[in-house]
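>> received
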Amino acid sequence: MTPAACAAAFSATATILNLSGVAIASVRCRQRPQAAHANKPPVTILRPLCRINNFERETLGSTFTLDYPDYEIIFCLERGDDPVAGLVYSLMEKHPHIQARLLIGEERRSPNPKLNNVLKGWDAARHPWIIMADSNVLMPSDYIQQLLGRWREDTGLVCSMPIGARPANFWAEVECAFLNTFQARWQYVGESLGHGFAQGKTMLFHRDVVDQAGGMLKALGAEIAEDAAFTKMVRDAGLRVHLVDTPFEQPLGERSAAEVWSRQARWAMLRRRTFPLMFAPELFTGAFFPLIAGLYAAWQYDVNVAVVAAALCGVWFGSEAILARVAGWHFSTRMLLACALRDVLLPALWVEAWLKKDFVWRGNAMNTRQVMAEELEG
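>> returned
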C-alpha cells in the first residue's frame, strides 16, 4: 500500500471505531427504567473530604436527601480546622434524622492520601454494603437504587464515572469534553468488551470482596490510585466491574486552563502507571491523528482538503453531540470547539504521562516512582 492509502485506511478505521464507541455508549445511556434490586439492604456511604469545592453545600447536602430506608453517612476528614468541617456539621444539624458522622484524623498507612483519609471510615462502617463517593458528586434521590440495580452475580464492584455539568466558562466546557463524551464513552466500551474498570468518583462494593483480598489496606494500599487497585482486586477475584446506566453529575462551575490540564495530566499519569498496556493506545483515541491522516490522503489523491476536513470534524464531533443528547449530558455550541481543543491536547497529555512522575493532589506531593519502591520493599 502507498503512504496515502495507509493514511486513508487509518483515518477510516479510527473513524469507524469512534462511531462504534459512540453507539455503544448511546445504547447504555439511553433513558430507560432502572432495574430494582431484590431487596434494600442497609448501606454505608463514605465521603472523603478536603477543603470546599464548587457546589460543595449542594453535593454534600444531596447525601442527606436520598430516598432509601436504611443508610448511614460517614464523612472522613484529615484536619479539624478544614473549613469543610463547619459545613458538614451544619448539614448534620439540619438533618438530624439521618445517621451521619464526621470522623477526623490523619495517619499515613499507605502511599495514597485519599485511602489514608477514608480508612477510618471503613473501620467504623456498620454495614457490609459500602459506597465510596467523592465530595463533589451530586447524588440523585435514587442514587443507591441505581448502584444496587447494576449488581449481578459476577459483580465485584459497581461504579459511576463523573459527568461534568453546569460549566460556567470555556475551560469548564473543555473539562466536560474530557469527562463526558470522551472518557465516559470509552469506559462504557471497555465494560461492553468485558474489561470494565473503576473510576473513583462513586464505587459500590461488598465488604466480603475486600476482606477476601486481605482487607482494605492490603487490597488498595499497594496502588497510588484506589480505583485502579479496586479494578485489579475485582479481576483477581474472577469478578467484573459494572457501570451504572445513568452516571452521576459533577457540577463544575468555573475552571482554569491550569486546573483542567493538571487534573487530566494527573489522571493520565495514573492510568499509565497502573495499566500501561491499556494506556498506550490512548494516543490514537482522539480525532487529531485521524484528521491529519485523512487530510494527507485527500491531498495525495487530489481531493478537496477543506471538504474532507469538514466531513471528518462533522462525523467525529457531531457524533459526540448526538451521544450527549441521547444521554442527557451537557453539550453547547462551544463544546464543539472544546472537543476539538481536547483532541489537540490528548497527544501532549499522553507524552507527559510517560515522561513525568511527580504531581500534586489536594496539596500532597506524590511520586509514582516512590510508590513503586514502596511496593518492592513491601
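>> Residues 3-29 form the longest helix (27 residues).
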